[in-house]
Amino acid sequence: MQRARFLHFAEANAEWDEARFAILGVPFDGTCSYRPGSKFGPNAIREASYNFEIYHQEHDFDLEELSIFDAGNLEECGSADATVDAVEEQVSQMLAAGKFPILLGGEHSITSGAVKAYRAMKRKVGVLQFDAHLDFRDEYLGQRNSHACASRRISDIVGVSNITLVGVRSICKDEMADAKRLKLKYFTADEVVERGIAAVVDDALAYLKPKDIYVTVDIDGVDPAYAPGVGTPEPFGLTDRDLKMLLTKAAPRMVGLDLVEVCPPFDKGNTAALAARLVREVLVLKGKQK
pTM here? Predict the structure, then answer.
């Protein structure tokens, strides 16, 4: 995999062969159903990544200790189906080379491609999804790989018992019926408020039996007060610290990450800054694991 010429993620200065972490942008928002623009998310996240200190005082860890490769952005494929296939191919290369993949979206339809890559490599993973929406439609506006079908497609790949969601507060009637019928496990935003994020995430992680966990973060799971720049904002959400806690607790079992639905046209960079800071948090948390 060769480095493209572009603004790479801060501290992503390693070459492919020596890198432990590999970052890939997926600038696709072709199934957008409300506010377009998440295809600009990957570059906005990269730009925002330069705002932060290299040293993380909370962890007493310097990001310069890590070997990070930024592969640039996936070429726009035109359709959701083609994008999912291209993501699977790229992530498969990362896994075959022993890299920890980090995907920057782009919309949530890209996640199934990454999860397919683990199956192709015969690696069993559970999936922890942070999201305001259940995303469990079997199809939406004629597309099975719509962003509104993200968790449904993931469940098709790993099995419905190997995915769980945290932060949900928007479900359509048909999704609710299917979730009950297929026994999809999810935790609502109200439950997080009532019980606390630590207890909910502990339960979510206990539910997922595979040792390895892929984490997919739809940034709209965070309340619009903290993350206004998203494609489908949903009030009454969780805080940025709630999401940070989820990533911290998931980190020991985490084998890959995507962070999607940052939509730069709808704020002044705050959402991209949060996304960049969260990616850096994961890099530090995984970097401390030898």
Answer: 0.96
